Amino acid sequence: MTTAVAAPFRFFALQVARTRRLGPSLVRVTFNGPELRDFRSDGRDQSLSLFLPHPGQNEPAVPLELGWGSPRSSEAESGGGWWQGWRELPDDVRAVMRSYTLRELRADAGGHTTEIDIDFVLHGVTGEGEVSAGAGPASRWAARAAAGDRVLLLGPALPDNRAIRFRPPGDTDLVLLWADETALPAAAAVLETLPAGTRARVWLEVPRSGDIQDLTTGADAEITWFVRDEATDAGADAAPDAGAGPMALDSLRAAELPCTERPYVWIAGEAGCVKQLRRHFVGERGIDRRRVTFVGYWRRGLTEEQLREQG
User: Fold this and answer.
1) Plot region of 176 (φ>0 → left; ψ -120 to 50 → alpha; else → beta)
2) For the whole prediction, is pTM greater than 0.85?
3) Residue 3, number of CB atoms within 10 A of its CB
């Protein structure tokens, strides 16, 4: 007797349904497509890999067995062979791969996913949509995305998967969150999933005041926003320079947190800021490191390709 085990991740050929500007630094892109019916996720900080075309391409260039209209085998999707095939394509042809967080999904009455939202940070793009020479390829694509544009997504086929990192222990009595703009979609999705009445303290950092959002949550959450309000950004694929460290650090050090014995901490964003905040929560606050989830979404001065090369 053979037992079939579903692969936790697979490729989805999608197209842009619509876009919506959320603020001067943020745009929401909604994707749909027939293959989404097999997309499954419990949400929270679900991470995804998105493959984008270069300017002039009608769709992202990937190994033939993964492309649009190709009958994909489970081996091609779940195995590592696609990675080597993708890497062997010429640099100026190979699809741009970037990591993002699922902001929201919508499903039909049968539970099949019909649409997903991904929020993009627009580095090097003005509030009027002008794209500078220093803008990275993903920012350029998102700023100009239009209905019908094709992408490929590597995402979950199982609701509970290892690409969801927000996992508070069952006895948690206080949730502490910090995020910069790159982790804001994840933080917003996490807040929406917190049970009603959950005590939460949240610190969020964005480039400009127009990027502040009205967040929905049933939790007993106190949310503090910090605005860098910089006139320029770092260009390339680096997010706007957040300075030497997180703006929230002084506020955190001065904060009197609710009396608790079992807090859970989730911090995500620029790797250097995440490191400083983890040191604060574990070293200065004395929170058990096993109750702290920390994720470096990007690192100042490095592109995603350079980060991957460093392992």
Assistant:
1) beta
2) yes
3) 4
